[in-house]
Specification:
Blueprint (H helix, E strand, L loop, with lengths): L1 H10 L4 H12 L34 E4 L2 E4 L11 H9 L12 H14 L10 H18 L6 H15 L8 H17 L2 H22 L11 H21 L2 H23 L21 H10 L14 E5 L4 E5 L5 E5 L19 E5 L2 E4 L11 H7 L7 E3 L7 E2 L3 E2 L5 E8 L3 E8 L10 E9 L2 E9 L5 E7 L4 E6 L2 E5 L5 E7 L1 E14 L2 E12 L3 E7 L1
Antiparallel strand pairs: 1-2, 3-4, 4-5, 5-6, 6-7, 8-15, 9-10, 11-12, 12-13, 13-14, 14-21, 15-20, 16-17, 17-18, 18-21, 19-20
C-alpha cells in the first residue's frame, strides 16, 4: 500500500503524453528499416568546437568511467560492470576528448569496434540517450576527419542509428533527455543530406523550438535546477551555436540569436551558483567531473564570441534572489558566498534529478568551502542512492525522520515540498533571505518549516522555526572534509579552515549536538570522509550562528 501511494503521488504529476508514450514504447519497439544510401551535405567540413573531457582510454582496451577502471574485452553489454559505466562506453566521448587529434587511429578503431560489436537494435548502445550522445560525437569526429577518410560503413551505421533514435524519441521522459535527442537529430541532419537528412534537421529543430523556451527559465537556469546539468545543457546550446558557425545554415541562423542569449544568461546563473573555487554547488544531482565547469564553458562561449561573466567580487555585502529557479545568493567582499535553496522540485513532471533538499544551503568563507551538501557518487535504485537524495544528506532540517520530499526509486518523487513566502532584502550593513516550505505538512503534525539567513560583515545567522507538532526535529550541518572541528563548549565549536582562518559555530535552541562521521560524495565513484553535525531541536526554534 505504501508503494502504491508513492506511485499515485508520482504519476499524478506526469503529463498525459508521458503516460501515453510509456505504454506505446512497451508495445511498439523500433524496427530495422531499409534506408536510402546516406548522402553527405558537405557544408560541415571541420568541426572546431572546444573539448573539455579527458580521454577515458589510451589503448581502447582499458577504460575509466565514473571513477571505475575496467578492462574491455569486446562485450558492450557486460553485466559485470554497472549499466551507467556501459552507457559511458557507448557514448564514445573519446572521439572528441582533449588530444583526440593526436589519436586518430585509435578513434577510427573505436568506431569500427562499436559497429562490429553492436548489431542494429541490440543492446545498451541502441537506447535513445546513448544514441543521442554517440551520434553527436560521430558527426563531430567524421567532420574533423574529412570526407575522404570517412568509411561508407560508418555513414550507413550513422544513418541507422539516427533512424532508430527517431523511432524512440524520449517523450516518456522529456527534459534533458528529449533535448539530447533533438540535438542529435540536428547534428545528423546537418551532416547527412537527402530527404532523410532534411527530415531529421526539421524534426530536431522543431523539438528545440519547443524545448528551449520551456527548459530554460527567465533567470538563465535549466529547469531541472541542477548545477551539474546546467553545465551539460549550456554546452549543448553552445555546440548548436558552433554548428551554425561551421555550416551557416539558414535554418540555424533563424534561432542562433536566441541560443546566444540563453547561453549568456545561463552562464550568469551558473557563475552565481558556483563557489569561489570555480566549481559548482551541490543542489539536487550534482558532482564534479561529469559536466563542463564554469571555466570550460566560459572558454567555449568566448571562442564563439559570446559575453561571459566577469567573475569580479562585489564591493560590498549583497544579496541576489534568482526568482525563476528559486535560489538565493549572498556575497561578501572577502570571497565569502552563501547559496540557499528556496526552489520548488521541478519540473513537476520530471523530478528525476531532484533531492529532498528544500531550504538547504552551502557556504564558502575566504574562498574555501565550509558547509557542503553531500553530493552524489552513483545513480541507481539502491539504499545508497536513496540516502544521497535524502533530507539528512543536506544542510537543512529533518522532521520525525522523514524526507521533506518523498524521493524514492532512484529517480522518482511523490509528494513534494512547496516553497512559499520566499523573499530577500538588501540593507546597508546586513542582508536577508527567507522562505518556508510545506513538505512536512503531510505528516500528522502538519509542520511548516521556516528558515531565514541573516548576513552581516562578520557573520551569518541561520534561524529555523517549525510550526505544528512533531516528535523530533534534527538540523544537519555537513562540513567540508578539510574543515577541522574543535569543541569549545556544549553548543559552541571552533572551525579551522585550510587557510588557517577560524570560525565560531554557536548553537541556540538545541538539546543535543552530535558530530557524526559521514561522507562527501564529490564525484561519481569517489567519496571522502567528512563530519556531519546533528542538532536536535529542544523546541520550535533553532539559531545557528557563524562568526568569522
Amino acid at each position: 500500500m505504501k508503494r502504491l501511494k508513492l506511485l499515485f503521488h508520482t504519476i499524478r504529476h506526469l503529463r498525459i503524453r508521458q503516460l501515453g508514450y510509456q505504454v506505446y514504447y512497451r508495445i511498439r519497439k523500433p524496427r530495422l528499416r531499409k534506408l536510402p544510401a546516406p548522402v553527405l551535405r558537405g557544408e560541415l567540413d571541420a568541426w572546431s568546437g572546444v573539448a573539455y573531457l579527458e580521454p577515458a582510454t589510451k589503448d581502447g582496451r582499458t577504460f575509466t568511467f565514473l571513477g571505475q577502471t575496467a578492462r574491455f574485452e569486446g562485450n558492450w553489454n557486460d553485466h559485470v560492470v554497472p549499466k551507467l559505466w556501459l552507457y559511458n562506453l557507448h557514448y564514445q566521448d573519446d572521439l572528441n576528448a582533449r588530444g583526440a587529434k593526436s589519436r586518430i587511429d585509435l578513434c577510427e578503431h573505436m568506431v569500427d569496434a562499436w559497429i562490429e560489436g553492436n548489431p542494429p537494435l541490440a543492446g545498451n548502445g541502441w537506447e535513445p540517450y546513448c544514441l543521442s550522445l554517440r551520434i553527436v560525437n560521430w558527426v563531430k569526429f567524421f567532420s574533423r576527419l574529412g570526407s575522404d577518410r570517412v568509411k561508407e560503413t560508418w555513414l550507413q551505421s550513422l544513418a541507422q542509428q539516427t533512424d532508430a533514435l527517431e523511432q524512440q524519441l524520449e517523450f516518456h521522459i522529456l527534459a534533458n533527455h528529449l533535448f539530447a535527442n533533438a540535438k542529435a537529430l540536428v547534428f545528423a541532419g546537418s551532416y547527412l543530406g537527402g530527404n532523410q537528412g532534411d527530415r531529421w534537421l526539421r524534426k530536431g529543430l522543431a523539438l528545440l523550438d519547443r524545448e528551449v523556451p520551456e527548459q530554460f527559465l527567465e533567470d538563465g537556469a535549466h529547469y531541472e535546477r541542477s548545477p551539474m546539468y546546467q553545465g551539460t545543457l549550456l554546452w549543448d546550446l553552445a555546440d548548436l551555436i558552433a554548428l551554425f558557425q561551421a555550416t551557416r545554415f539558414e535554418e540555424l541562423e533563424k534561432r542562433v540569436n536566441d541560443w546566444r542569449q540563453r547561453v549568456e544568461k545561463g552562464l550568469e546563473w551558473l557563475a552565481a551558483m558556483s563557489h569561489p573555487d570555480g566549481e559548482i554547488s551541490f543542489f539536487n544531482d550534482a558532482a564534479f567531473g561529469i559536466a563542463p565547469n564554469l571555466t570550460d564553458l566560459t572558454n567555449f562561449a568566448d571562442s564563439l564570441g559570446l559575453a561571459v561573466p566577469s567573475g569580479e567580487c562585489p564591493e560590498r555585502l549583497q544579496v541576489s534572489l534568482l526568482q525563476a529557479s528559486g535560489f538565493g545568493v549572498i556575497d561578501w567582499r572577502e570571497r565569502h558566498r552563501l547559496l540557499v535553496d528556496v526552489a520548488p522540485v521541478g519540473p513537476g513532471y520530471q523530478p528525476g534529478h531532484a533531492h529532498a533538499d528544500t531550504l538547504s544551503c552551502e557556504l564558502s568563507l575566504f574562498g574555501q568551502r565550509v558547509l557542503v551538501n553531500s553530493g552524489i557518487s552513483q545513480y541507481g535504485q539502491d539504499a545508497e542512492r536513496h540516502k544521497q537524495r535524502s533530507t539528512a544528506a543536506h544542510n537543512t532540517v529533518e522532521v520525525d525522520g522523514q524526507n521533506s520530499s518523498e524521493v524514492w526509486g532512484g529517480f522518482r518523487v511523490a509528494r513534494r515540498a512547496r516553497p512559499f513566502d520566499v523573499g530577500a532584502s538588501q540593507g546597508e550593513l546586513e542582508v536577508r533571505v527567507w522562505g518556508k516550505h510545506d513538505g512536512y505538512r503531510r505528516l500528522p503534525g502538519g509542520v511548516i518549516h521556516h528558515r531565514e539567513w541573516l548576513a552581516s560583515s562578520g557573520g551569518l545567522v541561520i534561524e529555523d522555526v517549525l510550526s505544528g507538532s512533531y516528535d523530533s526535529a534534527v538540523a544537519y550541518w555537513h562540513l567540508h572534509p578539510h574543515i577541522n572541528i574543535e569543541p569549545i563548549e556544549d553548543f559552541r565549536l571552533l572551525l579551522t579552515l585550510p587557510g588557517g582562518q577560524e570560525v565560531s559555530f554557536i548553537i541556540e535552541g538545541a538539546k543535543s549536538l552530535q558530530s557524526i562521521d559521514s561522507q562527501w560524495h564529490q564525484q561519481f565513484g569517489h567519496s571522502t570522509k567528512n563530519t556531519k553535525i546533528a542538532l536536535e531541536l529542544s523546541g520550535k526554534k533553532l539559531v545557528t550562528r557563524l562568526e568569522f
